[in-house]
Amino acid sequence: MSEEYILFSALGKTDPIRGCHDGACLHIVRHYRPRRAVLFFTDEMKKNERADHRYTIPLQHIAPEMEITSIFSDIKDPHLYDAFAKILPQKLYELREENPASTILINLSSGTPQIKTALAMLAIELPGCIGIQVESPEGKANRELPYIGDGIEAAIETNIDNEDLTNRCKEPQLSLFRYYADYHRILSLVSDFEYQSALKWAQKCEGIPEVALKLLRHAASRADLLPDEAKKHLSHYDGIELFKFSGSQKNLLEYFLVMQMDQQRSHLSNLMVRVIPFLYEFLLEYSKANLPFPLQRLCQKKANRHFYLTRSALKSQLPGFLAYLEKNMDYQMRDCDLSFLLLYHYCSYVGEDKTNNPSLHKAIKEKLAKISDVRRLRNDAAHEIMNVTEDIFRQRLNMTSQEMVSIFFDMLRLIYGEEITPLRGTYKNINRWIAEAIKIPNL
Hints:
alpha/beta, 21 helices
């Protein structure tokens, strides 16, 4: 007897012996020698068993040491899924939980077509289970053959399989069905940019290639704004360098890509919350590159890495800008953290003739003018209970969310050049690579 195996079997009209050959349940016991068989009886099979023990006697004949557990149900319509949908899966799940160290053999060839289909699905779903199909001796359905006929003892004595050692048991590649179910689930999550969920699912799946897991780890870290961790998982793929930029440029571009994902997923409230941090970092980058006297040069650097601007520093170094601020912001300037709004006003204040690149400064100011109402909508989204929709974008900003994101990218391209253009397709490429990597199962 195999200490590893427990058989779970429904019973059908080809059991236990038909046409002088084993039925499926008996044949599995003959060739796998499980230490225990758990038999699931419908109402009809229960009556047969109680009348003459026709199912258990043949099993005990070939495997006298095997333990037999009978589950007697009152199912009268086993051709209806609803008739057994609650009890059959429950019994199999309980058996799996109670015997974690054993392999559960599931008979896929006995019972109604509906029961066999349900058991195949459970064999796919449950770990540590093997589905077993048993071919008929003739290689086709054998329902036209006589059943037990002259009685159980006569059927046992005339059973050809007592002498014929041919093993008709097959272990179908049900894992292939499971793989394709997992494949489509993973791709669905990936298409929604749910990389962490896709990774967790893929790590539980058999046959997912390691390269696909690397891509998922890379994407999950990258989408969580952990580019250095993402680079450790994968720095190049398909001959492409995945991070062409470094430092503050890399951080700003990666942040933009996450904003672009928010827009594509219609997570517009999330997108709006990210807008001001993005514009703040963008204007810091722009000021550093194109303004001879960046505003952050006047600031104190705080422990939290924020820039802190004092009124006294402005008054002594940029009195004209201080006057401009107090006129346009309609309040008296106080010491405060440097903000997007201050940088925005500074860019508006500085004339083109006082920049390193006048045409660039003019272009940046034009882009900023197009999104002048964004800050107000962002503040509403951050501080009120509201769902930002495309209709709100059109009403409040006179543009779509996609148009706003495109303006942001145009601003990035103005300061970083056309070299960044391919970056917009970063996650589209990653999704395509993941789909290609898991397409062919490694089984």
